[in-house]
Amino acid sequence: MIKQDFLGTTNKLFNKALKYTDISEDLATRIRVCNSTYTINFGVKLRNKIHTFTGWRSVHSEHFEPAKGGIRYDINSNQDEVEALAALMTYKCAIIEVPYGGSKGALRINPKDWTKPEIEKITRRFAQELIKRDLINPAQNVPAPDVGTGENEMAWIADEYRRIFPTDINALACVTGKPIQKGGLVGRSEATGRGVQYIIREFFRHEEDVIKAGFKGGLKGKKVAIQGLGNVGFHAAKFLHEDDECKIICIMERNGAILNPKGLDVEDVKNYLIKKGTLEGYKKGTFEKNSSDFLSIECDILIPAAREHVIDESNAPNIQAKLIVEAANGPITFEADKILNKKNIVIIPDIMANAGGVAVSYFEWIRNLRHIRFGRIEKRRTAYQFNTLISAIETMTGKEMPEKFKKQFIEGANEIDLVRSGLDDMIREAYQKIRKNLIEENIQDLRTAAYKTAIDRIALSYESIGL
Ligand code: NAD
Description:
Helices cover 45% and strands 14% of the residues. It folds into two domains: 6-183 and 431-463, Leucine Dehydrogenase, chain A, domain 1 (Rossmann fold); 191-356, Rossmann fold, CATH 3.40.50. The protein has a seven-stranded mixed sheet. Strands 1, 2, 3, 4, 5 and 6 form a six-stranded mixed sheet that branches. The protein has helices at residues 6-18, 25-32, 79-95, 116-131, 151-164, 191-204, 207-212, 231-242, 266-276, 334-342, 350-353, 356-370, 379-397, 403-411, 415-440, 446-464, and strands at residues 36-46, 49-59, 67-68, 71-73, 101-107, 141-142, 223-227, 247-253, 256-259, 286-288, 301-304, 323-325, 346-348. Helix 3 (79-95) links the parallel strand 4 (71-73) and strand 5 (101-107). It binds nicotinamide-adenine-dinucleotide (NAD).
């Protein structure tokens, strides 16, 4: 099964970037290997029977703590996959400069086989096992949602932690991606998709990059194909469609794809998918059963947003997109990456493209530790200052400022504006710094430049603690 080599892919990509760094082989090994992986087998009594479940939590690096990374629920999960994903978390955090090590967790389960109360029971039990080993802890290891999990699971995890440590004032910071009413942060659930949008926008701000990829003009009207209409894929497609006027010409899901050369209404498709559980029968597009065949559809931007290793040696030669944005983790195998690079297809790699999730998780964690919402203290003071400034301008010029500008100044920023602004800044800066590295070091592809950037930063961090 291809999926088994996910860790191999990650390590090969790491090794490829090493030649652009000055770090020693032994330090490279120290950075590359996963620090620890805990396998947990636990039983839960359900439907009058004890069911044994297997889960993992890997800590790839602890050069910063807490280690950060999602927990996925997937029937095909295994240790290799979890370690690969934990490594990607390390590199991702280094790229956007959040002070975290990398971690990841998984539970081998098909969530669709169980009811919501059963999932709650399983999640709480899994959380207990992890919490008692400090594998969930606001200072040491902070999970978040991933494939098959969402804010419900995070709320149950936070609640378990609070029950075990009722006097820990920072208990809510033990996990991110919680519901708003349970210490979550506005903008977290959209964050990974939003980050995908922001990095594509940043790419289109660099004319040289746009020309190199073979594009003409800006983002408006570009044809986008997306795989996976879950949390990440839905938000990315929705924002590109609604804010940037991209044409979403193809959406690939588990049991089939929906196509419309004129563009699909993403929200409408999502509502249909939620209601029917399939895209089959959706009237405002053509349904095709062989979903993954459409990864090679003629389009401008291809966004794999479902899972790892969906593009391999067998389909890479047929890919027609000019730009691939890896919203999913590890969607391209090492061999496929080589083929796509040869075809001069630009790839914005996972460790840059989907870093929006951990960026906003970082904000949520900080907000939980500060116990106050962003902007609370300064909002009225800023409004007062702007009011004074507007009065001064009006007095000096003898003219009244138009109402719409006045309103914008005086209303100030809401928490969601601040979250999006912070995310945008982190994503732009990451792209710019990696691009600079690519040019200065004469590196051929963004992925290698991104890995180099991450490796250099982690090496510096390890060296400064005197390893
Ligand atoms: P999700 O479970 O919400 O959505 C995944 C979607 O992909 C589902 O709609 C599923 O039906 C679909 N899918 C699964 N297999 C498919 C296939 N073979 N073909 C087409 N569609 C398929 O998961 P998510 O949170 O959106 O995560 C998607 C990817 O993004 C994963 O690789 C994950 O690790 C990565 N990621 C997620 C986050 C996050 O914040 N959730 C952050 C960073 C990276």
